[in-house]
């Protein structure tokens, strides 16, 4: 297909497609004339993934390129792929944050209690530490033990999540699916909790 | 206590406390001299709640005042209180959004499948409609049926949430707790899902 068709199919403007071509995020099409090229389905899929990495996950163009390069190097190992896509480890070599000495003992205890094998670099650890810190700074008597029942439910959620990634073998497609289902579902999962809270409150207080 | 002590205890600056007093968010202290007043524990608690409504839930000062007024009118009905705090119904009378004709049939079907009794005005409905729309616009084959297992887990989460609100009888305290535990836990719940995804991926792909 021509670039105009690729733009229509992917929902990405031709100007942006040309920019991605220049930056090497998108491999060149098959040249059919001095100023024309032919693009295929793999370009459509790759554009979708680029859009998800930049638009949904909020990566910069250069970070998105690192992720894409690593995926494209024939890396179809699902575990590595998910780690890359979710930012468990940074693409293109570890640039450790370091510095800030924070007390992660709460998260460490929680992870150990759950028997989870997770990387020290998983940024989710930081989020949990921060939340526990904030709750305590607001005078709440709250620590990692209180999160254990929530962690058990998160475990069941993760099983549902990973079941939905069984399908596609193509690494680009799997990466796209993993990202969309993880990131785009986040607001919906929180919204389901709100609805369920109201439903539960109706049962308890209007039963 | 004096205003300086109130500031220290609540973590809110005296300038901000004076602003809240002027705007009527905080009731005046007991006058002890022409320019001095004595504040009590109820002021500390109310300041905390104001901070949560504005800082955590992101309400404007005037919307926070509406919520506080409604709570203070002796409204200690927990169901009403939670509805107010979570924004299920707007404080100070229904200002319906209306207008935008959107197709909420997916959410309606989901809510009915779950047997949930929830208000038509719960803003979480909109979030779910939007998510389903976005996933479909990105070419995913995804509808409300796919959310049912997640809704079942959300139901269990809501039971945990409401169990934690059994304690306090004071409506201000209950409102504060409901808000902190709902809004501040949100990033932590998503982070738990990420950690659990990595743990589950480790089991499946490195087992």
UniProtKB/TrEMBL annotation, chains A, B:
Q: Which domain of life is it from?
A: Bacteria
Q: What is this protein called?
A: MerR family transcriptional regulator
Natural source organism: Streptomyces achmelvichensis
Taxonomic path: Bacteria, Bacillati, Actinomycetota, Actinomycetes, Kitasatosporales
């Amino acid at each position: 297909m021509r670039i105009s068709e690729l733009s229509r199919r992917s929902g990405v403007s031709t100007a942006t497609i040309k920019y991605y071509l220049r930056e090497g995020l998108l491999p060149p099409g098959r040249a059919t004339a001095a100023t024309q090229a032919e693009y295929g389905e793999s370009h459509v899929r790759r554009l979708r993934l680029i859009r998800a990495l930049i638009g949904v996950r909020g990566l910069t163009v250069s970070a998105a390129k690192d992720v894409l390069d690593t995926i494209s190097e024939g890396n179809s190992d699902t575990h590595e792929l998910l780690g890359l896509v979710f930012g468990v480890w940074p693409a293109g070599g570890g640039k450790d944050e370091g510095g800030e000495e924070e007390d992660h003992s709460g998260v460490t205890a929680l992870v150990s209690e759950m028997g989870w094998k997770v990387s020290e670099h998983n940024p989710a650890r930081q989020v949990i530490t921060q939340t526990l810190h904030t709750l305590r700074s607001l005078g709440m008597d709250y620590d990692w033990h209180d999160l254990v029942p929530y962690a058990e439910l998160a475990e069941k959620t993760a099983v549902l999540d990973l079941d939905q990634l069984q399908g596609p073998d193509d690494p680009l497609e799997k990466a796209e699916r993993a990202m969309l289902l993880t990131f785009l579902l986040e607001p919906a999962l929180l919204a389901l909790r709100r609805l369920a809270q109201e439903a539960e409150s109706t049962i308890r207080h209007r039963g």
